[in-house]
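ok new one. same drill as before - C-alpha cells go in, u give me an amino acid for every spot. 260 of them this time. try not to just spam alanines like last time pls lmao
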C-alpha cells in the first residue's frame, strides 16, 4: 500500500505505524486520518497482530489540527460543514475506533504533543513517554476548544486534570503526564516496554483483546451522541469570524493570533 502521511511495518505480533509529516509537525489532516484508519484495517486483517505501536518522525509527535488545511475552509466538504471539512466527525470516529479495535494500541511519544495529538495519545491503550515530551491543549488561544479530545482525555485523567489542561493551555511535562494517568511508562527509550508488552500479548487469543476492550469500554462509554456534540461545538466555534481570521493569518504569515 502507498502511504503519504505515515509508514507501516509488520513484525510478528506488532504493527508499527509511524507518522511521517515532520515538516508539518505531524499535524492531523484529512489524509492522515484516512491513512490511520487504513493502518487499523491492516492490523485487524492480520490474524497474528496483537499490538499497534504509534510513533512519529521528528521532534514533534503531533501538533494537532493542520492549521494550513483549516485555512482552506469547508471546500473539501460538499455539505459546507466546517467541522466535517476539517475531519471533525472523522477524527472523533478514529479516536473512538482506537478504543474499540480488537488490537492493543501503544503510543510511544518522544517530543511535543498538542491539541488533537493529545487525543491520539489519550485514545490509546498504553502510552510510553520519554522525559523530552510535553503534552498541551492550546486550543483556547485560537478561540477553539479540544472538543473531540476531551471525552477521551477525561476518561484517562479525570475531569479536573482535563479541565485544567484546557483552561490553562499550559503543557504537562512527561512526569506530570505519568502522575495524572495520561502516560503509563516513562523511560529514555520505548523498545523494552514494547517488547515486554508484545511478548505478553503474543500469548493471547486475539479475540479476547476485543472482548476486553468492549467490556472495559462499556464501563466508561464514549458514544455517538458525544461525537455529535463534539462536532457541533467545533463547527460553531470554527464559524466565528475572529477564529477564521486568526487561522487564515497564521496560514499567510505564520504568526499566531496572540502575536498580533
Amino acid at each position: 500500500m502507498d502511504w503519504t502521511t505515515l509508514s507501516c511495518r509488520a513484525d510478528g505480533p506488532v504493527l508499527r505505524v509511524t507518522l511521517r509529516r515532520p515538516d508539518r509537525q505531524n499535524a492531523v489532516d484529512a489524509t492522515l486520518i484516512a491513512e490511520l484508519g487504513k493502518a487499523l484495517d491492516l492490523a485487524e486483517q492480520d490474524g497474528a497482530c496483537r499490538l499497534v505501536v504509534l510513533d512519529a518522525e521528528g521532534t514533534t509527535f503531533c501538533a494537532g489540527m493542520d492549521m494550513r488545511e483549516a485555512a482552506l475552509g469547508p471546500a473539501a466538504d460538499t455539505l459546507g460543514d466546517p467541522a466535517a471539512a476539517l475531519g471533525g466527525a472523522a477524527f472523533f470516529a478514529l479516536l473512538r475506533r482506537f478504543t474499540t479495535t480488537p488490537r492493543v494500541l501503544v503510543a510511544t511519544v518522544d517530543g511535543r504533543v498538542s491539541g488533537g495529538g493529545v487525543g491520539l495519545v489519550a485514545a490509546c491503550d498504553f502510552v510510553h513517554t520519554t522525559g523530552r515530551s510535553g503534552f498541551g491543549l492550546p486550543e483556547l488561544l485560537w478561540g477553539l476548544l479540544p472538543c473531540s479530545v476531551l471525552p477521551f482525555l477525561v476518561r484517562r485523567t479525570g475531569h479536573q486534570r482535563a479541565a485544567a489542561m484546557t483552561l490553562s493551555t499550559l503543557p504537562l511535562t512527561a512526569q506530570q503526564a505519568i502522575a495524572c494517568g495520561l502516560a503509563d511508562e516513562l523511560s529514555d527509550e520505548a523498545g523494552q516496554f514494547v517488547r515486554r508488552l508484545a511478548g505478553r500479548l503474543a500469548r493471547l487469543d486475539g479475540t479476547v483483546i476485543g472482548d476486553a476492550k468492549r467490556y472495559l469500554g462499556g464501563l466508561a462509554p464514549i458514544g455517538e451522541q458525544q461525537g455529535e456534540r463534539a462536532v457541533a461545538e467545533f463547527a460553531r466555534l470554527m464559524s466565528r469570524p475572529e477564529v477564521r481570521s486568526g487561522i487564515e493569518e497564521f496560514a499567510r504569515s505564520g504568526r499566531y493570533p496572540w502575536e498580533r
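Confidence is low (pLDDT under 50) at residues 75-80. and btw The two ends are 44 Å apart (CA to CA).
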